[in-house]
Amino acid sequence: MLLPYVRRVRHHQLCFAGMPLKRTARPRTETSEARPVIATRPGTQRVQLLLFPDLRRAYRYGIVDRRDRQPPTNPWLRWALHIAATMAEARGFSPQLTRTLTRNLTMLLTYYIEDELIRYSSYQPVLTSRGSSVAQTTEVLQTMGILLDDRHPVFDRWLDAKLADIAPGIRDDTRRWVQLMHIGGPRTHARSHRTLRGYIDLLRPVLLDWSARHDHLREISRDEVVTAIKPLHGIRRQITLVALRSLFSWAKRRGVVFANPTSRLRVGDVDRGVLQPLTTDEIARTVRAATTLQARVFVVLAAVHAALPGAIRALHLSDVDLGNRRVTIAGRSQPLSELSHLTLLAWLDHRRQNWPSTANPHLMINAMTAIGTGQVSHVWANRTLNGLPASLERLRIDRQLDEALVSGADPLHLSEVFDLDAKTAVRYTASARQLLKRPHEDASTSSARTDRSAPKDPVNPPVGSS
Q: What ranges do the domains of the chain cover?
């Protein structure tokens, strides 16, 4: 069997014992390394119309053998591969991710017919089972305008689960109100998911109680609203009443109810109490927990510059000026302390070593966002600090409270340093005055708070330090 091949051998490589045999790599042909040809959207042609447009395709890998590296014959596939190659070059995709994306598009578009829409639910299970790049494939299809996104949003699924046990009449009107608050309208500002989740969590017990006796919102009286909020106190009462006023105001404008039962019910102010500074032990626990470079960046920017976690996640590389030792957080330029400068240098070096070709403009990235242009998630930012008393939000509050303590509780100073509104600045200064008047405060806590507030670098002190 081997004799015909052995007879073709005309030369033999002579090598001595102990010398490695160096094999000459075969030069790759242009076809094997050929980049996808430049393509645009195919022109309208005479095609066979689909007999059943809603019929779902069954996708599977291996329908086409592309090992010969020949250009595809389908013009839509050529256009998709051109978009994918441009995206990969602009965002620094790895070769493996580029090959995976090419394989996915080949599976989906080899037999594509013009005017056909590709359902997300048809290819998502196939790609997920192989661990393929679903997000990048979906983005290419969206760019081409041939994607039918039939996903059920996560927020809608959560809302349906929360309102499942409520009377149908009350449930339907509440869902319409929440959806308007979610997407916004001509006279309604869109609320965040966090705000709406807080509203529904507090309204659910009230709506369940009303559903046992009523079938519609128009049957709810003023006395029942007062009875529902009577056992609540503090911030829970305030937010519940705000949500009820918003719900019934919307229902009155839409003609769902005859009269607004929450009218002339005052929300009032809530006494939030005196803000308390963090102890040295609480801060030390957070510092010990911040073992990764990204966690140190979040902790330092929150503790030294009083930056919100969302503002840190939104930072761009252009917001950090290491030469002049300044950083722009939420539109305000601040001087970098020595600690912040060294922490950012270490993170930027780590970022450059791990993702040298990324096109993501944000300062904080991870393996998921390095292949895109979006921000890191809130969960990723707080992963190492979950359950600790000195969270990022508490560190930010403690920094502003320290500034109020060392600056003589001046609200104008706090507004200038941290860009606070008048109400928030007055709250910090009121808490600072109460803490400064406490005769029972021990010297260790006072000195520890003063040490944290004092600038560590005499050349580049933290912003707002006096």
A: 75-148, 155-253, 280-453
Tell me the Ramachandran region of residue 255: left when phi exceeds 0, alpha when psi lies from -120 to 50, beta otherwise: left
Predicted TM-score (pTM) of the model is 0.71
In total, the chain counts a number of residues equal to 466
**Which residues make Cβ contacts (< 8 Å) with residue 302, sequence separation at least 6?**
308, 309, 312, 392, 393, 395, 396, 399
Tokens standing for 451? 């040490």
Question: What is the phi-psi region of residue 13: left when phi exceeds 0, alpha when psi lies from -120 to 50, beta otherwise?
Answer: beta
What is the spatial distance between Cα 255 and Cα 307, in angstroms, rounded to a whole number?
A: 44
* Interatomic CA distance for residues 171 and 164, integer angstroms: 8
Which residue shows structure tokens 């393996």? 367
Q: Tokens for 287?
A: 């510092």
Average pLDDT, the chain: 83
Strands 118-119 and 147-148 turn out to be: parallel
CB neighbour list of residue 336: distance below 8 Å, 6 or more residues apart: 322, 325, 326, 327, 344, 460
DSSP 16-47: -TTPPPPPPPPPPPTTTTPPPPP--PPPP---
129-185: pLDDT as tens digits: 776 788 899 999 999 998 888 888 888 989 999 999 999 999 999 999 999 999 888
Q: For domain 280-453, which CATH number applies: 1.10.10.10, 3.20.20.70, 1.10.443.10, 2.60.120.260?
A: 1.10.443.10
What local confidence, expressed as pLDDT, does residue 26 receive?
A: 47
CB-CB neighbours of 318 under 10 Å: 9
Residue-wise pLDDT for 332-367, tens only, equals 899 999 999 999 999 999 999 999 888 899 999 998
Quote the pLDDT of residue 115. 78
